[in-house]
Write a structure and sequence with these properties.
241 residues, alpha+beta, three-stranded antiparallel β-sheet, 11 helices, 6 strands
Length: 241
């Protein structure tokens, strides 16, 4: 018998498609060149141009403030009045009037007032003067924004009366006011002792330093120890500034 011959089959169309992948020519998109509009939209290269803002025609709401003057501060107020009203009128653009019948100073905003906090600054300035601060120190409230006034009584720290209260005030003031001056210079504040009340003018951190020193003196700490603490705190404050 003859040997069987191998049957050769032609590859199917499916096999041809699998072996030879079909290449599809994609249509090429035309190259686009940047236009002037695209360049204008690039905000990083060119800064946008805006029209100038129109001046506002709004006016501040008229406000009034009345500051009571204690009887013992009326005479200093009258003597210093030529130096008190120019900062209020020229700098803050306020209207000022001294009402002798009611023993008060009246403040009012004017059409030329531009600062929204002008009347509050003026009230703080007059309040500082009535508490007993020097005029130059009170004017600093108008020029600086980070100044504050803190007041407290000696009885709030420790209940004292009679001679014990007088000795506490004497420890705070010191001989010829040396202790008070030392606290002021070390903490960069201003201190006023009015009977049994203590008023401190200065920055927020400086107020804490001066108050801690005064409280220590009221509680009975020796002045030498308070001086040492003030030197340490003063040296640290100088390093920061």
């Amino acid at each position: 018998m003859p040997a069987p011959t191998a049957i050769q089959r032609a590859p199917s169309a499916l096999a041809i498609e699998q072996d030879a992948p079909e290449t599809i020519a994609l249509p090429q998109s035309p190259t686009l060149e940047p236009t002037t509009n695209d360049l204008d939209m690039n905000m990083d290269d060119a800064q946008p141009l805006f029209a100038p803002e129109k001046p506002t025609t709004l006016r501040l709401k008229p406000e009034e403030r009345k500051i009571r003057i204690p009887p013992h501060r009326m005479t200093p107020l009258k003597n210093s009045w030529p130096k008190i009203y120019p900062p209020l009128v020229e700098h803050l653009k306020l209207q000022v009037r001294m009402n002798l019948a009611k023993k008060a100073v009246e403040l009012r905003t004017s059409p030329s007032t531009t600062d929204t906090g002008a009347i509050q600054k003026g009230a703080d300035f007059l309040q500082a003067f009535t508490l007993g601060f020097d005029l130059d120190d009170a004017i600093a409230l108008l020029r600086l924004d980070d100044l504050y006034i803190q007041s407290f009584e000696i009885k709030d720290v420790k209940t004292l009366s009679g001679e014990h209260l007088s000795r506490a005030v004497g420890r705070i003031a010191g001989k010829d006011g040396k202790t008070k001056f030392a606290i002021e210079n070390a903490s960069r504040t201003r201190i006023v002792l009015a009977d049994s009340k203590v008023h401190i003018l200065g920055g927020f951190k400086n107020l804490n330093v001066a108050r801690e020193a005064i409280v220590s003196l009221i509680l009975g700490s020796p002045p030498g120890k308070v001086y040492g603490n003030l030197r340490t705190v003063g040296a640290r404050m100088k390093e920061r500034f």
